[in-house]
Design goal:
This protein starts with a strand and ends with a strand. Helix content is 0%, strand content 46%. By secondary structure, it is mainly beta.
């Protein structure tokens, strides 16, 4: 599960990122935001593993932000969650439309 606050995803302001990962022994977890319809520069944000969360899933949290965009609030963003294990690198893509966010929290299951 991925949660990003605030759901309106204001540009240039801190975004609280919370990702629950199950079934992987991830050694490194990071998040990148890219424009779906407009290529933007990639800026990965490392997420830190939180202890004592759950036996079923590991919790990773961090802070990121999105860059200024000339299309403003109409930009649809792709959040790429990258999970690195000793054996492989896994990427999960989430399409985030801040205009469709009905609440203060985006909760998306891959």
């Amino acid at each position: 599960m991925l949660n990003i606050l605030p759901a309106s995803m204001p540009t240039g302001q801190p975004l609280a990122i919370r990702a629950e990962v199950s079934g992987l022994a991830a050694e490194k977890v990071s998040m990148e935001f890219v424009g779906r319809d407009m290529p933007m520069g990639l800026m990965p944000f490392n997420l830190q593993k939180q202890s004592g969360h759950s036996a079923d899933a590991d919790l990773y949290t961090g802070t990121g932000n999105i860059t200024f965009c000339t299309t403003g609030r109409k930009m649809v963003w792709i959040a790429r969650l990258k999970m690195e294990t000793r054996e492989a690198v896994y990427n999960v893509l989430f399409e985030l439309d801040p205009l469709e966010a009905n609440s203060q929290q985006i909760a998306i299951l891959p």
